[in-house]
Amino acid sequence: QEGHEHSLDVRARAAMRLTSAPLLLLPLERLACIPWRVSHAPRAQLVDSEVQAYWALLERAAPPTVAPTPALTLYRDTNGWCPFCERVWLQLHAKGIPFDEELINLRDKPEWYKEMVPTTLVPAIKLGSEVIWESDTIMRTLEERFPEKPLLPSGDTDEREIIEERLAGCADMLAAGARFAYGSRDSLSADEVAGRRAEFEGMLDTLEANISSTGGPFLAGADFSLLDAFYAPFLERWAVQLPLSLDFHIRQSLRWPALDGWFDAMDALPAYRQKVKGDAYSWTAAVSAFTRMFAPNGTISDESAALIKRADSAAAAAMRSMPPTEEAEVARQAALTAARKLLENREAILADATNTEAKSQTHIERLDPCDVEYVERMLREATSRLLKRASVSVEPSDEEEELPPMLSRTMAPHEAVACAQAARLVSARLCVPRDLDGLAAAELRSVLHELACEAEAFAWSGSGGLL
Predict the structure, then answer these.
(1) CB 181 within 8 A of CB 246
(2) 458 near 412, Cβ under 8 Å?
(3) Nearest to 200, CA basis, from 178, 176, 179
(4) H or E stretch at 104
(5) Is the pLDDT of residue 9 over 50?
């Protein structure tokens, strides 16, 4: 037994200990139906031509997208973290304006963008030959040029006056929120911290009163408006991140019931929920990433270490508790969107998963480059299962071979571990809305969790419980 244990891949065993799914909780009936229990042909090392042929089969199976002619180009940040970009992004979807996107790396902005936009900031749009920047200016321009589905009432009405008055107060709200949220970066006395908290609470009280005075559920009444698009990106982030960083809860608070109803109304808005809203996992993981990223001189204090631990734990819990999409057609479309994303980006995903010099989320362990075959196997299986969820048939022609399963009888346990680790890694690296919208990400994470559990069960069984 001792000799057998030492013959196993040590790195693989360590990786298994890091995964979050308890193997013994996998039901026995689930173990009985996973693919590796079916007899398969002996596994041979795949050559590149075979791999390309399998991906070509998946690409041919996925129905092509039909996109309307874009009316403009939106320039936004690569990571999907900029709340000012999200404002415009949400407005475009709510108004149904078709658009192209150019993603701008904020750490290394291209020269052409800095020459095009005097402020060099995002967002910006290009409408014909006209370039417009600053989110406020962009959004008002869009209301003027695309009046078919207005998010601002016409001028000289009481409704317009109310919205304009509340838009004018948005900057004060955001400033108070920033002072409160990031106060720990300053050397503040207890009284100063309490003062910032009280200031922010007062702003939320005003928001609560405003919603109540116009009947809700949105910020200016019964309908979604430009006002909601202005506030949503910030309230979305605060609702997830402030409970972690400052034990401050906006949602489900007896003090702000109308505001809680606003969150529910926004979640029911397809342009928001299905397109631009970040999910709980992504905003929680961002707390951990930002705390590491902005540590003074790279030194993480005890307080920051405790926050990172809370954020990582909450992110793992959020990953496990993602509810499935209930509407069948919406779920089908979400699965198809996720499958297309894997087909489009598989080379980038393979590179990230085996990048030994990663620049972001460096605390998430990547796979060894020699394990790229197992990352590819996992991605191929995930794509196939997503297409099946989308009711897309993956049928080879008479000249083509069927897609091989991710796992086979001849696979060594440590190879299955690599497949499982790859699935967990891709799930952890998936950021909403940077990479996918929330519904498509939920479908993809569901498939990745399924694959990780199957591969971990394979490894556990094949190693006699040692892995």
Answers:
(1) yes
(2) no
(3) 176
(4) strand 99-104
(5) no
